[in-house]
Amino acid sequence: MHHTEILIVGGGVIGSSIAYHLARAGRAVLLVDRSKIAAEPSASWASAGGVRRQGRHRAEVALAIEASARWKTLEQELEANLNYRRGGNLMLAESDAHAHRLATFVERQHRNGLSDVVFVDRKQVRDLAPGVAPQVIAGSYSPDDGQADSVLTTHAFAAAAKRKGAEYWTDITCESLIANGRRIKGARTSHGDIEAETTVLAAGAWSIGLGASVGLNLPVRIEALQMIQSTGAAVNSLTPVLSSLGRALSLKQIPSGAFLLGGGWLGDLGDHDSYRLRQQNVEGNWKEACAILPAVAQQRIERAWCGLEAMSTDDLPLVGAVPDIDSLLLALGFSGHGFAIAPAIGRAVADLIAGQSVVELDGLRSDRFHLSRNPLP
Q: The CATH number of 2-51+150-219+314-369 is which of 3.30.70.1670, 3.30.70.20, 3.50.50.60, 3.10.20.600?
């Protein structure tokens, strides 16, 4: 039996941010991950790396604002290159009806505290993103948003956590959580049992089975979310991250010049943590990008992949304690948009474990689902 103060199950960007924030506060932390850090097909390996505040659910806005401020100096804090770029986020309208919706959307962003989000007209859109398609007539622009590299960021959080004293066990399978009555006392792994004062379940798609091991049915499903990378275009030809009302699309350019396409297109889940791309979805995602930014059509698809994402039933993460279960915290179900708020989630969970009140997490509490444990055989 290995003993630790805090056990974190899952070493993705969320788990590693939590480990970093706990370790820098002087807590004894052991993190266990089934694979290497940010390895295929985890969400942290596959993420498009968007750093976005506009369009957030109200329950996430405070965390998104906090995280946005942290991103500006996070490379210095973590002593690592994250390929972070604050180029803005530009949501486009291609019709008068969509432009009207965007004007209302901008007003809602202001009510949520995002006073810098602005409605932009046809000319302003082209000043921000030269080369957008001629049918685009307006946009909502959030200048403080941007992008970063998810793999680099996850490794940077992990390396910083280790420098602060956190212990990492990688390529170690967590077989189950261990319960003693209503208390979660740790986990059973392929490297032996771990006993902890507090256990944090942050294993993404693999959290479902671990919750079930102690009778906890999490309101989470697994989806294989598709990404596409193009061949390299001229670097810095697209600055903001683009999306468009009525299209399933997220479009950005990474430092190599390649375009990176997402938007929630699905692949098929296979056996043993595998997936299969749907060719019609690859083609559909590519077509949407070409329709918004014709320069994409001058490139070709270099590669496509999927990441396994834990999607909650209301598309909001579950962060915090579980009623009637002691010594367990959840940080999961980020539903494809957890990367951007990872710095704030790490800080918030560390504060929770320290016994502080964290009102920013109130809308993400698991008790909104009335979770309970089933009796174990």
A: 3.50.50.60
Q: Residues in the chain, how many?
A: 377
Contact 128, 239 (CB under 8 A): yes
The pTM of the whole model exceeds 0.90: yes
Distance CA(150)–CA(254), nearest Å, equals 12
Residue 104, judged by CB atoms within 10 A of its CB (0-12, 13-18, 19+), counts as exposed
Contact indicator for 323, 371 with CB cutoff of 8 Å: yes
Instruction: Show the tokens assigned to 229.
Output: 């990378």
Q: What are 41-67's pLDDT values in tens digits?
A: 999 999 999 999 999 999 999 999 999
Peptide bond preceding 41 in cis form (omega within 30 of 0): yes
Contacts of 135 (CB under 8 A, 6+ apart): 94, 95
